[in-house]
Amino acid sequence: MTAPPSRAELVARLRDPERLSRVATTSSEEWDLSQVAPGSLRSAAVLVPIIWHAEAPAILLTLRAATLSAHAGQVAFPGGRIEPGETAEAAALREAAEEVGLDPRLPVIAGTLPEHITGTGFRVTPVVAFLDPPLTLTPDPAEVAEVFELPLATVLDPAAPQRQSLEQDGRVREFWAWPHEHHHVWGATARMLVSLAQVLRD
């Protein structure tokens, strides 16, 4: 098995303008944004945590609670709106603390991915960070039903993400999905993982 890139290598890739430019134009490819006024977009941030297990680093993901009013039961990164005066990094850390009980002093920020525009009117900045195990997390049951991991090796595998489709409001929508034994990883979270993969892969 090929060893994963080192932290230093991943940081260098996340901060390489040429690599980042490859994904800058793909963030909203699955959505019809004609109904979203540019001035109405709300700023948000998510934390993309890479848990640095010695043998097999992995991406931390959450399953949203089934009782939530929006995106209930879907896979997501910890995150939410950027409050006035906050940076994307500060918002991502705050939301992760609120949702999964992650101590905001623990993540080591590695970089950010290009913004993603969502069909619900958010401009999302993914903030990538390293976490060293062991971790003690206390998910808020009102927001998070489960915390789980997706192997970094899967993200680095070009054959892993698949294009899927569904019919919605009389239209066929295509989207990215990632393989996982127990969860359907798709939507905005899957697109952010595709962007992460494009930046991190050789």
Task: Please identify, by name, the CATH architecture.
Answer: Alpha-Beta Complex
Structural class: alpha+beta
Shape: globular
CATH topology category name: Nucleoside Triphosphate Pyrophosphohydrolase
Main beta sheet: 8 strands, mixed
Based on the structure, what is the oligomeric state of the protein chains? single chain
Helix content: 10-25%
Order of helices and strands: HHEEEEHEEEEHEEEH
Our count of domains comes out at 1
As a whole number of angstroms, the C-alpha radius of gyration is 16 Å
* Broad CATH class: Alpha Beta
Strand residue percentage: 25-35%
Looking at CATH, the homologous superfamily is: Nucleoside Triphosphate Pyrophosphohydrolase
**Which regions contain 5 or more consecutive residues with pLDDT less than 50?**
none
Distance between the termini: 15 Å
- H/I helix tally: 5
Mean pLDDT: 88
The count of DSSP E runs of length 2 or more, i.e. the number of strands, is 11
Brief sketch in words of this structure:
The chain is α+β, with helices and mostly antiparallel strands.
Structure in words:
Helices cover 23% and strands 32% of the residues. By secondary structure, the chain is of the alpha+beta class. The chain has a single domain (7-30, 38-200), classed as Alpha-Beta Complex (Nucleoside Triphosphate Pyrophosphohydrolase), CATH 3.90.79. The strands form two sheets. Strands 1, 2, 3, 4, 5, 6, 7 and 8 form an eight-stranded mixed β-sheet that branches. The longest helix is centred in the C-terminal third of the chain and has 14 residues, at 187-200. It is globular, with a radius of gyration of 16 Å. It starts with 6 loop residues before the first helix and ends with a helix. The model has no long low-confidence stretch (mean pLDDT 88).
